[in-house]
Structure to design on (319 residues):
């Protein structure tokens, strides 16, 4: 075997060893963060080539329960509602909560939707109630976008002065159970991103979705008035007039969600399989909170909170 072959084999061994030596960082995150976090993953791994970020998207509440109830190993948890971290992870499975991004609700649709040429920010509730129109939302017990869809509907009933709008459209009562929706009128899936392919296939007409996700996927969308969109703290008192019950930590328990401005949270997760002081997890969270990370969030249609509003033991990430 000549020297060139030996040198080639030696380099291959070094490259393979380098790849195998990369430390994995398991990141559980909200479905609505899939696009910006894919960009953040690339930028982070360029800056820190010793790490391999492995992302898993799901509804935020489902992601939290994978850590707290199922015991899946996760190093970072990022939620579309910072309250999910407070309610389901702190204090046993996380020690801090960094509020780092914002969003707003919108109504998304394609050009094939019924009344697509007619719908606007003023008449969408009336169009939703028309015969043959079908709308989609995610499961409120698994995904913040789901209960925010409900809250938007309840706020719209008051803002547009349409008595019984929520009852006529959904009829859920104070909480939602899987399968209780009128499937001729409503389609429900675990998280909002599960519904994107179906709307593009014209399986239904309109989707309650985050504005950033609608933009990322090139969908038409209605920008809702701030009184309804859950965007602005200016209307926090009005937002609070809408509420909905979602499942709690234990079977049969409920948490009452009230309307509020949309704020995302991120933390270093911990359980028996994922210690809270993992260096890579801390670096990843700090990168998300950095100017570079925030610029990526803005590029993908989300607002940012700068500096992040951190509660709990911020010393873990050196803030």
């Amino acid at each position: 075997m000549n020297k060139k072959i030996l040198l080639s084999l030696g380099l291959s061994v070094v490259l393979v060893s380098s790849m195998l030596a990369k430390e994995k960082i398991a990141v559980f995150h909200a479905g609505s963060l899939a696009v910006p976090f894919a960009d953040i993953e690339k930028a982070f791994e360029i800056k820190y080539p010793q790490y391999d970020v492995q992302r898993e998207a799901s509804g935020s509440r489902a992601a939290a329960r994978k850590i707290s109830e199922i015991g899946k190993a996760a190093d970072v948890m990022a939620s579309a509602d910072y309250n999910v971290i407070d309610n389901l992870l702190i204090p046993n499975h996380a020690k801090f909560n960094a509020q780092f991004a914002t969003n707003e609700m919108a109504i998304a649709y394609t050009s094939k939707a019924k009344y697509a040429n007619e719908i606007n920010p003023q008449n969408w509730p009336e169009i939703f109630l028309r015969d043959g129109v079908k709308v989609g939302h995610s499961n409120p017990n698994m995904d913040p976008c789901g209960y925010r869809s409900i809250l938007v509907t309840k706020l719209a009933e008051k803002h547009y002065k349409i008595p019984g709008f929520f009852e006529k459209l959904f009829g859920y009562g104070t909480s939602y159970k899987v399968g209780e929706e009128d499937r001729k009128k409503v389609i429900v899936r675990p998280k909002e991103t599960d519904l994107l392919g179906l709307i593009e296939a014209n399986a239904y007409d309109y989707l309650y979705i985050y504005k950033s996700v609608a933009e990322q996927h090139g969908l038409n969308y209605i920008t809702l008035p701030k009184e309804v969109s859950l965007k602005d703290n200016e209307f926090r008192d009005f937002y609070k007039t809408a509420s909905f019950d979602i499942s709690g930590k234990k079977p049969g328990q409920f948490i009452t969600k009230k309307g509020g401005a949309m704020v995302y949270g991120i933390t270093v997760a911990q359980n028996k399989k994922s210690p809270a002081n993992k260096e890579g997890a801390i670096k990843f969270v700090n990168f998300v909170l950095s100017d570079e990370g925030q610029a990526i969030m803005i590029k993908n249609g989300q607002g940012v909170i700068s500096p992040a509003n951190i509660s709990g033991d911020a010393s873990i990430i050196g803030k």
Confidence is low (pLDDT under 50) at residues 13-18. The longest strand covers residues 303-312.
